Amino acid sequence: MKQLNVDVAVIGGGTAGLGAYRAAKAHTSSVVMIEGGPYGTTCARVGCMPSKLLIAAAESVHQIEKAPQFGVHPQGNITINGREVMDRVKRERDRFVGFVLEGVDEIPAQDKIVGYAQFVDNNTLNIDGHTQVTAKRIVIATGSRPAYPNVWNELGDRLVINDDVFDWDDLPKSVAVFGPGVIGLELGQALHRLGVEIKLFGLGGQVGPLTDPEVMSYADKAFKQEFYLDADVKVEQMKRIAASDGSKEDKVEIQFINHDGELETFIVDYVLAATGRRPNVDKLGLENTSIELDERGVPTADHYTLQTSADNIFIAGDASNQIPLLHEAADQGRIAGDNAGRYPDIRAGLRRSSISAVFSDPQIAMVGESFKQLETRLGNCGCFATGAVSFENQGRSRVMLRNQGLLHVYGEQGTGRFLGAEMIGPNAEHLAHLLAWAHQNKMTISEMLDMPFYHPVIEEGVRTALRDLNAKLHLGPEMIKHCLDCGPGC
Asked: Which residues catalyse the reaction (predicted)?
């Protein structure tokens, strides 16, 4: 077995791993990166980028279908060529992956070890039995994988995860999507708009990442108007069956209780499991280390330094189970790698204000502290208030026939500081950025209202919600209906 002694070993070559490697290299040349799977990052290969490609195709169809509402009538029937749709998705996906691989190719060959690592102790890693690495410091950046009930494996190749969707050569006729979270909502709605018959099922009533009951209720109602959604379904049976339509591929038969309380049967080409993700830490041999684990078996780590209870081991990205988003993984990777490189001079890294988005239509976004977090921290004392705006009569939203949505903004009693927001609505991804910048700058609601607002723009809806909140915080006047400085329809 080959023996290596290094200053820093990074386990994983995704977004967090690459960031950790580069940050550690700024302090020492003795760094290796260990990767057993393909390089390319979850985002580029099977996550944010290919999903947006599919969503973009779906949006183009939706705009054509909506055109008659403007008095514009496209001639002829809309034809969706599934093979052409998926060909573009895969071509562009491969292009994005290529950009990542170009960066990986720049890493010296001697710094890359191929294989899966397991801990022997706090400083020793065994890589597939061919190499033993003794490292002074180690960064865990092993990412995550889809999680679903083991019994679903009985469906064989009729069960797919989001990774599999982007390898389809053609669009199927029907899909049952389980999990109305970020992945399920995005892919389910996109497939529906591309002509695939879908039903979206969930358990417990959760829709997207939302925690505000009113915003979540609005989202549930809005999506049900477009496609079948039951966020708390009762499935009686799900089994693989032989096709009866003359095709060679088996189907899946799902029996469930529908909205009318009746038993309904849905026969589909595929079941798409979008029921969450699990950190890839269960096969690392963590039991051979002194690392403290949480109830899910994930290493606990300091939020600002990413240092675990074993002071020479750090964790970053989806493996940390903190905030599984690309920009967070990149930040965490840099922090963990920097601290592994400069150890023992550990430093707190910049943790930006929380921001997340679901690229459904309407879009969903969350900023800062969630409603649930605020209820837990401040709810008992009534120390925060909520400002609201509906986008149904908001001027620019109605102009574009995108007038669906509800925005809630939260502010602290006494200080007037902006605490967070949850929303569903048009251009929520952009509204969320404005609010996240305000949150990170610790602005008050009054200071945010002093910022410029153009007319007519969707952002005027944000101003309406902020005015409502300022009044509820007793820091500003009551809302004035049809205020003159807003212009019509704000």
From this structure: 455 (proton acceptor)
- Pair 16, 105 in one domain: yes
Q: How many domains does the chain have?
A: 3
Ligand-binding site membership of 179 (annotated):
yes
CATH number at residue 64: 3.50.50.60
Q: 420: annotated binding-site residue?
A: no
Tell me if 133 is assigned to some domain.
Answer: yes
Tell whether residue 184 is among the known ligand binding residues: yes
All residues at 6 or more sequence positions from 104 whose CB lies less than 8 Å from its CB, including other chains = 13, 18, 39, 112
Q: Is residue 490 very low, low, confident or very high in pLDDT (cuts 50, 70, 90)?
A: low
pLDDT tens digits along 127-171: 999 999 999 999 999 999 889 999 999 999 999 998 899 999 999
Amino acid at 336: A
Which of residues 313, 342, 371 is at a domain's end? Answer: 342
What amino acid occupies position 102? E
185 is in an annotated binding site: yes
Structural domain contains residue 53: yes
Q: Which domain holds residue 116?
A: 2-146+278-342
Q: Is 455 a catalytic residue?
A: yes
In this structure, the strands spanning 234-241 and 251-257 are antiparallel
Q: Could you tell me whether strands 117-121 and 174-178 are parallel, antiparallel, or unpaired per DSSP bridges?
A: unpaired
